[in-house]
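Blackboard transcription, Thursday session:
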Amino acid sequence: MDVSFQLREGEWTALIGHNGSGKSTLANLLVGLLQLDEGKIKLNGSITKKEQSFEHIGIVFQNPENQFIGTTVEDDVAFGLENINMSYEEMRERVDKALLDVDMLDYRMADPSQLSGGQKQRVAIAGMLALEPKVLILDEAFVMLDPRSRKELMATIRKLTNKGMTILSITHDMEEAAHADKVMVMERGRIKTVDSPSQLFFSDSTLEKPFAEKLREALKSRKRKVPDKYMTEEEMVLWICKSN
Amino acid sequence: MDMQIELKDVSANYQIGPIRKPNVLNSVNLTIESGTFTALIGRTGAGKSSLLKTLNGLLLPSEGSIRVGNTVIKSSNQKDAIRKIRKQVGMVFQFPESQLFAETVEKDICFGPLNFGVPLEEAKEKAKKVIDLVGLEPSILSKSPFSLSGGQKRRVAIAGILAMEPSVLVLDEPGAGLDPQGKKEIMSLISTWHQQEGLTTILVTHDMEDVALYADRVILMDQGKILKYEKTKKIFSDTDLLESWGLEIPQARHYQRRIEQETGIKLPNVCLTLEELADALVAVGLV
Amino acid sequence: MNKLILGRYFPGESWLHQLDARAKMISVVLLIAMLFIANNWLAYLFLWLITLFIMHLSQVPFHTYVRGVKPMIWLILFTVMLQVLFTSGSNVYVEWGPITISEYGLINGVFIFSRFVMIVFLSTVLTLTTKPIDLTDGINKLLTPLRLVKVPVDDISIMLSISLRFIPNLLDETQKVMDAQRARGTEFGEGSLFQQMKTLVPIFLPLFASSLNRAEDMANMMDVKGYNSGIKRSTFRRVYWKKQDTWCLCGVFFIGVVTVLLRG
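(Written on the board underneath:)
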């Protein structure tokens, strides 16, 4: 794998690619779950050692249930802080702040059986936020959620990026990727393209497109005068209204 | 085979012992015609899974009766009727790959048929047939189910149900947890089985695109009751109601509503798919 | 599953519910020890009164305790019968072949019955009035001195709390797998013992596989969050020792003294 990319603070980058392209491998390497056979990982120009990984990068995985270790929500969020032997007072502060950031403060005494998949994922995020990482990786974090949980989670991610968190979300869902600020396409262990969603979905015909773009193409094939550029839902609706 | 399904005044709960538990199904009345493709929608906790379980005797009704073809199940535990119904109604649960256990794929697929008294040689023949039906290579039959990928496991699990040659196929979110490509493939297979084998199909799903694409009729449930049971187009015509129940609508319908609201022009028909929407927009001259 | 009272938490606000888990655990151990120290009518009567009083304090209905003994009643009666039928001593009443019923045997039978039942009752009081997580917190704190002899107390603690946390999930999954296999024509609890055991394979294997998966996911998460065996880590969950806990231990100590004094 020979990969080099930049993530800007407060930016939401989606990482897409077929199964076997190396997306999850990349994520696991970044958080130190996989050991390198050769080569090195550099963060901000300096080579990282495994122990340092989790200080900078947090990760949330697919399965909401299997990440929840604590008996209650706040116990779970505190887990990472206990591991760095933090004092109770400091833990209390960080836990509360993290829960507030994901809108789960009201649920801090809840046990996992009382939470939906989306809520559990938010708790998983809070557990990472408490460790104050610079980057948060979401490894197909939406896959096992029902539509409502997905919406809630997306809103939470948006809120976090607005507050300055850098997000790298690995996904197969093109609608999800369309919401990101930037999309990276990975293929066979390399980054093939980096582009904005609009540019990418407009130019790359191998990708499954978001609905608005598919509609534009359907209208184009019916010989209608649609603009020759990528359109989001808003833009599509606006264009239809304006033309009438 | 005529396999009409009828539920008459069915109520059910998960009560064991003296502690009273609330009903998960309340006086459900429903008739599903043989050979149809029905989608079952509703928010989490509406009673969808419970309804499915009454169809093969996993959940016995506290009141009322369930008829599948000629077999009837009531509140008293009649072993023969239940056994018969379980063979006729093939049930695929969510994440079905979690039920795989045998040494080889072939053995796992044969598990169902063997339990229903099918001789071993015949069961193996069926295994060969269904492995093809689910789009896998016959060479997979000798492999261990635990060595397969997630998508393959799921197909093997479904094959195990198809091998019992049910007349009714019930599926609870068969695409859950799969990537979009995998999901499309599974749904397309289900549609093929429905058409080719004439299976009465009941699908529980949150994905309204699938409902729009495949279902003839839709059952909408909430709090253990059936709110609506209508043709697909009709169910999606009242979008406000669906949204009030916290449900999604197909993308095309969503766009249709927005466009109609913003332009004030109504499209000639309810659009559930991309193509229908594009055609309708052209037809009214909006594009 | 539903009949298992020992181990079940019964929510409540009684004085016992509010005691620290450590005080309760130590008390139960000490009280059980006293059951072996007592050796005459008076001592046992005293301990019976104490036990019944403690059960009353828990505000849990008596029949719940009785239900807790039921699963073990045959084992208890069997052991008692052994005492009654095969012990010789003063005042033999019946002698018939290997069977000897003596006064000594009968009295001992009653003592053993009492001991067994009181052990069950006292342990049940502990689990009925203490949330499982509080028990593990208590155990964690009590085991702390063992750190000095390199016992991996934190690991044990985490293993206990993770196991507890996933019990509802395991029960759920078991139900789901059973349903799935039933839908494929298996029935459970029917046929010969051998057949019944065969039907356990389609349940056990999938559960085992999913538990392994879960363990791997969990281990990855713990790794990313910096957990390592043997590191010094703080505890977020707090346990508070209060005055009433000290009083409780004093009370138990007092009971112990009385029991020793009553010893004949």
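Lecturer's comment: The mean pLDDT of chain A is 88.
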